[in-house]
Amino acid sequence: MSFFIEVLVGGLLAGIMYSLVALGFVLIYKTSGVLNFAQGAMVLFAALTFVSLTEHHVPFAAALVLTLAAMVLLGWLIERIVLGPLVNQPAITLFMATLGISYFIEGAAQLLFGTATHELDLGIPDEPLHFAGVSVSAFDLAAALIAGALVAALTIFFRTTRTGLSFRAVADDQLAAIAVGLRLPRIWTIVWTLAGAVALVAGLLWGARLGVQFSLSLIVLKALPVLVLGGFDSIPGAIVGGLLIGAIEKLAEVYVGPFVGGGIEGWIAYVAALGFLLIRPAGLFGQRLAERA
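Structure (tokenized):
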């Protein structure tokens, strides 16, 4: 039983890391309906910018502030130059635009920072902690606490601030939001800058875990099953979906993997997502849209 709990807790903590990437998707989709495939490239760019600054002996706090400023600027440029002019275009057009943005960011990052792999040390020890006979990674536990704080801050922001309430109004009905005087370009600019800030947190934690390398952008694929389970427009859903996917991956690898030759952890999340789509397409916390024929 202690081994089962250890595997389960490890999966849950790993799932929190997936949720950090999914949060960036949710922020954009919740207010504009755009599936932002560039989120993975934004995570990579944030990690590369931070580690490059620290390698040039910029103090940690200053590097963090400068990287945050760079991500805010990046989000603002994406909205102003690319997605702003594409307002009211079909969803597939917007999706392809974010796909193009993703490859552009990766190319620009390669020109600016090169292709070498960088080590990123956040000062968080990666050693096991023992609780009642169960070993837990200190780094994964710290990442879970950071993710929890981020989700709590975003939830408070959306529910209590004027800007957050404006986001929710735009998400519910864009035409009605315009009718009451809300400025959509301003709101979308703010939400893209928030997505950039979330990408910074995810980039630092994933970069410290895997090393800062260009394959880091592929973690965007890990976020997709999380979004399917939790719902594309729900911040709590991103966390719950991440926990479920993390637990499914670890438990399946340990208890089912030996019977199918191993390697199940790489694809079982997508099988679970496919099955979930057949049962509840909107996800656990996603809103079901009712359309009149």
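The chain has one domain: 2-279. The radius of gyration is 19 Å.
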